[in-house]
Amino acid sequence: MAFSEETIRLAQQIWDYHHVNHTLQPADCIMVLGSHDLRVAERGAELWLQGYAPWLLFAGGLGRLTLGLWQETEADKFAAVAQQMGVPAENILIENRSTNTGENVALSYQLLQARQIKVKRFILVQKPYMERRTLATFEKQWPGEQTEILVTSPQIAFKDYPNQDVTLEEVISIMLGDLQRIKVYPEKGFQTYQPIPAEVWAAYEQLVAQGFTSHLIAE
């Protein structure tokens, strides 16, 4: 399906907002959040191979998009990608029971506690359009002592992101769903507050009016 230049322009605004543009620094652990997108696993492995942290943690069981699509969990599938890229198995941690970001937080914390691994700085790796929501969720829900959180994602431009696994229409719809959650979830205690510029919210409203509503929640 072809979309107008205006639709692409509005979607690019949402895409740009979802990026937090953190400058990465050495950390105690790289945590890769599971999904259907193996490029996220590749980004996490690249960072480990570049020496950013001693541990590479993959979190994710089978979620809404992978349940019925994959036979093995997201974390196990991602870990296999990392090992194929050269990350030793002894440096990989696997949390493969969680089905959402909140469970990613809780179960990964339990795993690190059990292994007696202290994390003062995390690098979180997520899909490009989920950077900001991931930051907001971890800032609110990570237990224990204060932990610095840096977020990154596969270094892919918006126009190049759709592939055989996710269409442009799906990407736009998912981005709008995440932006809506960034707006409403702080009131529910799920995430920290993230300011949304007026022009970004205007772009959201115009795209919703165009019908990109499949990932919105009832408020």
What would the keywords be for this entry?
219 residues, five-stranded parallel β-sheet, DUF218, YdcF family protein, single chain, alpha/beta, Rossmann fold
Protein described:
It contains 7 helices and 5 strands; from the N terminus they run H-E-H-E-H-E-H-E-H-E-H-H. It has a 5-stranded parallel beta sheet with strand order 3-2-1-4-5, sandwiched between helices. The protein starts with a helix and ends in a 10-residue tail after the last helix. Helix 3 (about 75-85) links the parallel strand 2 (about 55-60) and strand 3. The longest helix is centred in the last third of the chain and has 21 residues, at about 170-190. The chain has a single domain (about 5-210), classed as Rossmann fold (3-Layer(aba) Sandwich), CATH 3.40.50.620. The protein is an alpha/beta fold and about 220 residues long.
Quick overview of this protein structure:
With 219 residues, the protein is α/β, with parallel strands linked by helices.
The succession of helices and strands, N to C, reads HEHEHEHEHEHH
User: Quaternary arrangement of the chains shown?
Assistant: single chain
Report the count of strand segments: 5
Q: Helical region count?
A: 7
Q: Which stretches are low in confidence, meaning pLDDT under 50 for 5 or more residues running?
A: none
Main sheet attributes: strand count, strand direction, barrel closure:
5 strands, parallel
CATH architecture group name: 3-Layer(aba) Sandwich
Residue-averaged pLDDT: 92
How much beta, percentage-wise? 5-15%
Structural class: alpha/beta
Q: Under CATH, the topology is which? A: Rossmann fold
Distance between the termini: 29 Å
Strands in their spatial order, largest beta sheet: 3-2-1-4-5
Percent of residues in helices: 40-55%
What's the number of structural domains? Answer: 1
